[in-house]
Backbone:
């Protein structure tokens, strides 16, 4: 009888030990799975961020001429005229500045290659009556295109590929187009306060 009891106790003890071992293995496996999932998610996020940074860097590398130099190119062509808007976008595979200006009677447009600084075209036309009271672009104490780009890309997913700096009433506004695959957003930013004024998804 004593031997049977001893064997029974031994069997229960062994079963308990096996159960504890199995539970510990299960916990370790679950912990490792969660750790692996967390690591994968972090890695994916880091790769996405690095890809966006690299894409933005490539675009920036394609823009050799500064905005100030582009404005100077406009004034070389139309001395003493006011600038009202500056846009930067790709045309035929290359980034091009489009600078619009005016005086009391006429409007002026100059296109400048953002890599070579070459003036691609210029034109003059008579101003419409409703355009004769336009305000000149206020370029003092503005955030840079690069800083505006970071704000826009933080607000929506994607990479900036078109920039527009213009006057809207008393405010100077950055309008930036951010592209993510086939999705496009336009982000409007106050160029002095950095405030995001509007985000609009384009159709």
Residues:
């Amino acid at each position: 009888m004593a031997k049977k009891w001893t064997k029974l106790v031994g069997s229960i003890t062994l079963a308990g030990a096996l159960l504890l071992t199995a539970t510990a293995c299960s916990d370790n496996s679950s912990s490792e799975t969660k750790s692996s999932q967390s690591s994968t998610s972090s890695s994916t996020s880091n790769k996405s961020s690095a890809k966006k940074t690299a894409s933005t860097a490539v675009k920036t590398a394609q823009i050799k001429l500064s905005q100030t130099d582009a404005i100077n190119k406009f004034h070389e062509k139309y001395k003493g005229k006011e600038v009202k808007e500056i846009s930067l976008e790709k045309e035929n595979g290359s980034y091009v500045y489009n600078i619009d200006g005016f005086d009391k009677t006429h409007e002026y447009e100059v296109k400048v290659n953002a890599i070579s600084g070459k003036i691609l075209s210029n034109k003059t036309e008579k101003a419409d009556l409703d355009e004769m009271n336009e305000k000149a672009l206020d370029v003092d104490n503005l955030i840079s295109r690069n800083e505006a780009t970071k704000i826009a890309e933080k607000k929506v997913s994607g990479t900036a590929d078109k920039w527009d700096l213009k006057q809207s009433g008393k405010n100077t506004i950055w309008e930036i187009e951010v592209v993510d695959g086939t999705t496009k957003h336009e982000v409007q930013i106050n160029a002095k306060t950095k405030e995001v004024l509007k985000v609009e998804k384009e159709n």
